[in-house]
Structures are given as C-alpha cells and as structure tokens.
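Q: What residues go here?
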C-alpha cells in the first residue's frame, strides 16, 4: 500500500523485475517519468506525515539513491536509457 499520489509497491516491484529488453520505449519513458514524480513527492512530503510502510520504503530508496551516485544522476541516467540516448 502506498500513500495517495504515490506509486504503489507492487507497481514498483513489477517495473524492477520486468527486463528492460521486453519493454517498449513508451513503457520505459512512462516508468522514468512516474519514478521521477514519485521521488519528488518523496522529498516534498515529510516522513512524519507518511504511513509507516511509505516512510520505511522512502528511507530505503534514499539510501539506494545515495549508493548509486545521487538522485539527480540516477534519474538523468534513467531518462536517457528510456529514450535510448545512453548509447
């Protein structure tokens, strides 16, 4: 379950386990856009006003983003990949 206006966990899991090679360019672009929107919502809303599950998930995502070189770098790479501009 996710907070209103956020990507639910099942959708996120499906996006991660589905190989990019089986996704259309439109699907990749949509995932990138909705992922970016979700990250923005994550940053705008304080943890104290989130459900427990959403708070735990957001903290884990922030940790992952830091390990992957930062949110902006990660988002930029995803957009380039979705538009096949990373080659």
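A:
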């Amino acid at each position: 379950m996710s907070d209103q206006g956020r990507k639910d966990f099942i959708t996120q899991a499906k996006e991660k386990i589905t190989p990019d090679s089986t996704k259309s360019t439109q699907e990749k672009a949509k995932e990138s856009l909705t992922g970016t929107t979700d990250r923005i919502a994550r940053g705008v809303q304080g943890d104290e006003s989130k459900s427990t599950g959403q708070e735990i998930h957001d903290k884990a995502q922030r940790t992952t983003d830091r390990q992957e070189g930062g949110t902006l770098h990660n988002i930029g790479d995803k957009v380039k990949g979705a538009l096949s501009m990373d080659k």
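A: Context that may help when evaluating the design: The radius of gyration is 13 Å. The first helix runs from residue 9 to 17.
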